[in-house]
User: Which sequence fits this backbone?
DNA sequence: CGACCATTTGATATGGATCAAGCGATGTGG
DNA sequence: CCACATCGCTTGATCCATATCAAATGGTCG
């Protein structure tokens, strides 16, 4: 079948000398409301790997700027993107000891790096923290469940759903500035780039959206998109 | 498109006078290792609804016998099954206040009903319990992530993956006794019954499996199935 | 035995994949 | 500053896996 991207391994691992984290002291940028155990924002270049599938999950991460994708590559090279993370989102949180997906920066990004063990230890004493961890995992669960519902739909429905999801996650009204390529979108939606592209032009032709430039989408008719969103 | 089952609403709600739970005292059946706050096993008839999407999540549940499906129905009637739960599995655990899926008994089943508030209160004091709740949610998350990977594959791969998953969850070696119909399997895998049926006969023809009766599957060649599992 | 329901099998249709150009923007070296 | 290579995206033509429509078979229960 081979629907998705054929594995295009990201070259530069740990561009900023990652795993040798010199986590510089404790600063505070309210992590939600109560958790403040994090290092300085760390920069990752476009396409740089933040962590790999099956690596020990020593850290979790909070996007400060830019955007991140997590993904898995199947044996035969198909890639499935699990999620996109935008500023404010936390990713890489695991209960087990290993990351279940890989994570890469989509564009040059800054990410807060948080030591998991510190958080887990704190959670053992502070049930506020414990609840927060649980809530974050549950939030992920909901997102993934919504993703499943996307994957059983038609191409139009998937793309419409994707656009609505993105627009809900960015504050700005009807204009979306996509950080990710068509290939990323395709691998997120379980489609090919060609189908994503064609579907966007269909939506444009029916005046549901406008595509002034390939990375910029204007939602022109949310009602129509919502109708597609089933 | 209309791939899945057209909504076939389950008739009998709360067959055993559910929501008026007469939760009879506290008995003990180690809930994992440390939690023991549950009522008596409650019977649900085949196809009976245990809870509906968007209902308040007052309880969570542990399967004692039988099997359960959770699902969502889209506007246009397509049904997506989110998971199958077998004896020992816990389902219906939410962090938020409402169930995000509906749940039905697939066959006559017995289910332990556990008051969520009791558990959540306990978790606020006992971090053993808090961790357990988190772990259970994380387990669900992993399962759903695996489900996503299934949904991007070919029909053969999905069916092979499903069979391997089921066989891993039932102790017995190579013989699986499926509690669910072809329609349930189809709605879980995002396929039609016809495709599920045809795919099973293909797998039978290649001697990967045997299908002595429609609900009984024998895994004859796990290597072949694993190969399909990508 | 007969009715009903689940499953299988067959014939055909179709949405999206695949194969293949073409096009526009961005960046690089001369 | 322009010519050209590169990359991401779009568009076109064709193919194929799975859906859809239809019918036959089989199993279960009254």
Assistant:
């Amino acid at each position: 079948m081979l629907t998705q991207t054929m594995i295009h391994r990201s070259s530069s691992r740990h561009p900023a000398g990652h795993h040798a984290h010199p986590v510089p002291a404790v600063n505070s940028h309210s992590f939600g409301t109560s958790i403040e155990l994090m290092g300085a924002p760390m920069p990752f270049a476009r396409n740089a790997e933040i962590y790999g599938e099956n690596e020990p999950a020593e850290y979790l991460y909070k996007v400060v700027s830019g955007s991140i994708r997590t993904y898995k590559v199947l044996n035969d090279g198909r890639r499935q993107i699990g999620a996109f993370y935008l500023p404010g989102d936390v990713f890489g949180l695991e209960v087990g000891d290993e990351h279940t997906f890989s994570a890469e920066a989509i564009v040059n990004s800054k990410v807060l790096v948080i030591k998991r063990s510190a958080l887990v230890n704190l959670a053992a004493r502070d049930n506020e923290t414990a609840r927060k961890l649980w809530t974050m995992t549950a939030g992920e669960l909901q997102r993934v469940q919504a993703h499943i519902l996307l994957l059983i739909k038609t191409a139009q429905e998937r793309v419409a759903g994707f656009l609505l999801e993105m627009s809900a996650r960015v504050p700005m009204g009807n204009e979306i500035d996509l950080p990710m390529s068509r290939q990323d979108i395709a691998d997120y939606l379980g489609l090919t780039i060609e189908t994503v592209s064609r579907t966007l032009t269909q939506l444009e032709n029916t005046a549901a959206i406008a595509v002034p430039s390939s990375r910029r989408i204007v939602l022109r008719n949310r009602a129509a998109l919502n109708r597609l969103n089933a």
Q: What stands out?
A: Residues 6-35 of chain A have pLDDT under 50 and may be disordered. Residues 1, 181-183, 193-194, 197-198, 200-201, 214 of chain A lie near DNA strand D (CB under 10 Å from a C1'). Chain A touches chain B through 41 residues (CB under 8 Å). The domain at 155-229 of chain A is CATH 1.10.10.10 (Arc Repressor Mutant, subunit A).
